[in-house]
User: Fold this.
Amino acid sequence: MEFGLSESQQLLKDNARKFFAGECPMQEVRRLMETETAYDRHLWAKMTEQGYTGIIFPEEFGGVGLGKVELILLMEEAGWALLPGPLFSTVALAGAVIDAVAGSEQKKRYLSAICSGQARSTLAMLEANASWRPADAQMATSNGRLSGEKLFVTDARVADFMVVVGPDGVFVVDAKAPGITVEPMKTMDLTRKMYAVGFHNTPGERLANAGGLIRGLDVAATALAAELVGGMQRTLDITVAYAKMRKQFGKPIGSFQAVQHHCADMYLETESARSAAYYAAWAIENDAPDAAVAVSIAKMYASDAGRRVGNRGIQVHGGMGFTWENDLHLYYRRAKAAETALGDAAFHRERIAQLVIDGCPASSQSAPQASADVTAAS
Amino acid sequence: MDLTLNDEEKEFRNELRAWLEANAPNDWAEWREKPLEESFPYLRAWQRKLDLGRWAAVSWPKEYGGRSATLMQQAIFWEEMARVEAPSMANALGLGLIGPTIIAYGTEAQKKRFIPKILSAEEIWCQGFSEPNAGSDLASLQTQARLEGDDYIVNGQKVWTSFAWVADWCELVVRTDPNVPKHKGLTVLLVDMKSPGIEVRPLRQITGESEFNELFFRDVRVPVENVLGQVNDGWNVAVSTLMFERGSYGARLHLVFKRNIDRLIEISRTRQTNHQPAAKDPLMRQKLAQCYAEIEVMRLNQLRAFSRITATGVPGPEGSIQKIFWSELNQRLQQIAQELLGPYGQLSHGDSRAIDNGIWSYGYLRTRGNTIEAGTSEVQRNIIGHFVLGLPRSY
Assistant:
């Protein structure tokens, strides 16, 4: 049993760190977030060259054919860099869902376009009721024509096609199809733009196997948990560096226990979120029996921890943490968007409850005995 | 990353399973609720049996009676022991902390003298570290030892000493040089608990039991050959014992916690909260799911730490994460139990209406100690701040 990264996994992670630091440093993040779409086609072309757009997709479609663990290592580093633009939307949302629900001809068409860097995409799922349960989608889908409004659709303006979840199926819609309106939503996260997308009798292609949707969403949720871990790690790194440098009462503030303990808790939650995300990725990749629970644990933990790590980071920075100039709020904004996307902590706790309280897992069938052993060996 | 068992790990597990099938006792349930004073001979006999099968200290090197088990194999060991609900071992501190310290720092003569009897539970060990005025600031301890001929003469007091009432030997940290900075004047002595001048008193704790003792030393003679490690290098020896303490314990606890949350889920099906079965109450569902998830995260943190330690060779200061995590989680688990049980949560052992014989009222009180014993949460956070994150020392 080996829970560490293999040499090639570590190499992929290190290379991604270097790539994002070189191609998209913080001043570039700030430049892009001020643009309408936060998308840069030169950066996109370079990420395609790296194989990032095809990282988990089969080689027959021009992908790299790596596993979910490699995907989340890439997403962790994208989170650390606060990468703007549609990499997550295209690969971890639309791509992962297509991979899980499309027929082979459909996969060939759409995944090949994603792998080659030719197309960007996204997932349109939430409606006005803001429910992440696929069954709660209400848009009309009769005769392959979609009508209704999808909200909080990330990167819709730069998508060439969108994956749309309806109450009775999953569809791919060409972004230039008739009847589509794309209207920006003014959200907290400036680095990943969101849109309200209207469909008015818009033609869509039904994907072959909608039953795979939950699995696709699980891949996306795990990738998002990993992105949150990257953001937490960066927030921790920035905060620790500041606590060593900033002086009050003639000493670095990091020498005060009240400050140190904030930092220690940030570290504890970051590492714990990482353990949960890595395991969830491994569990999906290997079809482990507890994969669904593992995904919900990872997203639940990261959703809460991402917010708390951000809170502490800002607090340790004092007034500096409250300024626009400091980078922390950019991570904090991303963490808020990621916290609710694909189900917030309460959503995933309820899912865990359904799986382990209602679902009678093996462990609770054997009339467990509680244990009185609550002592430490001291 | 590969979270399946490799061939060696499977072989280890299968050999242990076969041994446990033939040797694990089936009458432990009759003993487990009795006071430790009564069940102790039973636990000694069980450890003796494990030792004969070379299962008492799997992490120890082969030449000292262990199996040189990897950390993953150790995790498998505790999982299998929990699976068959095996009794604990009598000489917990000797096996877990003190034996490994003697193996690391002891002379050949000391190893030969002490190790076999630790394994066989023939000699039980306790650990004399904390003092009334030296808790978190352990290095400020005042129990003093001065050299007189070939003996050290020990005077002072220790507190929070587990197993002292039954112990034959004690790993004792004493001050041998009061004229140097506090970390530099300490020495570890191996003390025969039958020596004249030692008094053991029970220390009654919040739960009403006396798990711990106070130890008094009045002119106790300890021969110089019982110094462990170098004279005035006792701080390093003691710290290595504390590292063993923080590193190894979490693996076992995950299984205890898992059993407890499974039991709480079971109870939630029959108890009412907010006018409905607790298992259907959205609030309780959230809390139970949160706790279930955190127990899993604790297990995963542990497994990741094992892989890291295996790669780097040493348990590092990041072990403090496990200590904070398990101790605070255990308190949250007991809090959820209290909310689930309502007024029944306060019923104690012996009350006819108590649920699960009062273990939840006991657990609620006992877990208060978890964030204090084996290094307080505050000290663990200091360790993370300074030794892991590189912040300036705060004390």
